[in-house]
Amino acid sequence: MRTKYKMLFAAGLAALAAGTVQAQTTVAGGTEAGDQTDIVVTARMRSEKLKDIPDTITAFSAEVIARSNINNVKDFVALTPNVTLLPSFRQGVFNLTARGDSTPQGGDSPIVVNFDGVQAPALDLINQDLFDIERIEVLKGPQSALYGQGASAGAINIYTKAPGNDLEGFAKASYGNGDTYRLAAGVGGPIVPDHLFVRVAGFRRHSDGLIPNVTLGTKADFFSAYGVRARTVAVYGDFKADARIGYTDTKNGFAYETIIPYSTTDRIDPDVSDLKIRSNLPSRERTRLFSTSLKLDYALDAGTITSVTGYSRSRESGFGDLDFGPAQILTQHVGFRVRAFNSELRFTSDGSSALRYVVGAFFQKRRIFNIAQIPSYLDDGGPVPTRLDDPRLQGPFLLNGLDVTKSRSWALFANLIYKLTDRLELTLAARYDEDRRTAESLTAGPVSRSTKTFARLQPKASLAFHATPDALFYLTYGQGFRSGSFNPYLSVADRLIRAEVTDNYEAGTKLDLLDNSVSLNASLYHIKFSNRPYYYFLADGGNSSQNIVTIASATSDGVEIDLSARPVDGLTVQASYGVVLGRVKRFDATDMFIGNDLPDTPDYTMNASADYRLPVSSDVDALLHVGARRQGRIFYDLANRVATSPKTFVDARIALERGGWSLAGFVQNLTNERFLSNFTPTAAGIAFVQPNQPRAYGIELSAKF
């Protein structure tokens, strides 16, 4: 048996065996163990204590978000075992991977992300600044039975701060290397006490960038962004209305990539420290996001009726280099526009009886317009073109992909929790999703139109045993579902992308010890994939295309362990460990990939952190936070020819607090660890690669009242 198989099962069995000997509590996301017992989440669409839910969940409170310097999705994903986010060539495209299931470029994520209960319809509306956040919940494992198609590997719930009867607010200002600054502020309170409340928050951030372009003498990863959000809550008797509206505008560098040789027959281990950005064009991208939602609650004696309605819109456009060299050869124009309307109606029973349940219905209408263009270029010896409307770029397109995908989906779902005894609890859930998708190329016209309905019933069952109030053991089976779709019309792959189905088995425990001063989470899982998606790019002049194929059969076995302790007053230590053993079992096009590791998935992830609060005077405290993440080898391609070696990332933060004031210094990626954050294989003997962010550091001044 291979060494990492021994590591996997030895660690998992040891953790589960430990639970049978002594009761311990669960800590997630670096929260203090003593606080974890009382953390309330809404993972199952009702308020419950985190330690009582038979699912693997990592929760981040507002305090953890602040001291861990969490400003975007990537920041909290880095603190979650067996979940990885790898940036891609533009802001709204990234690979979100969990337990071996990944996001193909241009495809849907296997993790549903909800903002204040409203599902984000595309990745563009996920990868944005997080400000004025109350709580984040990361649910791993199949969540399709409650959250629907697209939640085959999990769900992320992000909750912004709601206004209340107290007038409160905050302001933050930070400055760091690369002339990077970030300003954020928010204020909320009552308009009519006990009945009408408002909160407004916003941010502004800017950076010249940290990754040099050696051809232009500038930084490739510059950005400038601002955003604003307003939230209004009205309460009248048993009725509550919660309205939210937000807008974000971001301008940034994109496609700061370079080219390396690639072959499916030769092993490549590129030295990322020597990768240079050499593009002769200042590649630029602009993304504008708008979202609004309305949540209505009406409390009855038997439970609560909830309606959640949301509308989201994203417009992205980018222009820049495609040959990624100092000579003017190829340029690219990419665009992504999405509009989506969501509506959900559900009834949540009260928690006073042995049977608790949630039943509901969901509807979504979505339109996605994807632009991928490679214009021809007439070189007249003048300055290189920096805009798509340059007259020298008006010849025939080498690639002119204009693809529209429309979807109309609906679902019915139910989640039932029944106490068989005082200690034994059975959860049964199921959701039926039906998603009708139509794709058409505006370049080719009606002949390119394809339509298909993807439908699936997604069951889930869990048996939880509360051995004591401080010890939970559970077994879970769930089926995940990710709807199929269509490749661009000019793709060389099959037009149809098959729907993904996963069968998931999990055993876990949540335990408490020593008056909640020590805690433990542990789980073992096995996943069987059918049609796991995989992306590759064909770079061949006029035949260039983006392609998604599916791995007919694959498996993933893993273990996840979270441990937290508070050994002395003021000190909290946390450690987590996750292993993923993903294997290709069948790939219809060839047998050469069978037995290979699943791409884009680290072999393992390890996290450790320490938080220490030390009084330095009667009214001043010093706070020290140190966190480290060890990320195992990642294969970037299905052939397992390109891999990054294990990497360790260290972050640190030290702050002085007095009253509501705080002055902090921080550093991210302290040791300046470098690796490939993006790898795009092609069928032309090359690959596009992008380096990760180097070390960043700065200071932050904040105040709250």
UniProtKB/TrEMBL annotation:
One of its GO terms (cellular component) is cell outer membrane. SUPFAM superfamilies: Porins. GO terms for biological process: iron ion transport. PROSITE patterns: TONB_DEPENDENT_REC_3. Residues 50-155 form the TonB-dependent receptor plug domain. Belongs to the TonB-dependent receptor family. The keyword ATP-binding does not apply. The keyword Ion transport applies. It is found in: Cell outer membrane. Residues 236-670 form the TonB-dependent receptor-like beta-barrel domain. Residues 1-23 form the signal peptide. It comes from Rhizorhabdus histidinilytica. Keywords: Cell outer membrane, Ion transport, Iron, Iron transport, Membrane, Signal, TonB box, Transmembrane, Transmembrane beta strand, Transport. It is a multi-pass membrane protein. This is Iron complex outermembrane recepter protein.
